[in-house]
Amino acid sequence: MMLGFSIYDSIFEQTPLGSILAPYAAEAALYYRQTADTLAQLLPRFPFPHGGEPNDPQEAELAIRLLIKAKSEETNGVTVLKKCSTSDYP
Length: 90
Known about the structure:
Layout: H1 16-40, H2 57-86
């Protein structure tokens, strides 16, 4: 459940095309939630206005790993959304 509602409870899912696309949207939403959660881990490491210690080798290594992970998660979300545009609809 995201933002207090489930996509399966939405009006979108009650339409013929929506019922086909809703599972894709729900799967993509999970990847984007993971992306946001991963990026959120960077906030305490590089706070405003000081900015943390980006030149510290350990901090830099962790930040790079988190960014690579976030990119992978986002790419997975995009891949799922592309299925929507390539699916055959009734």
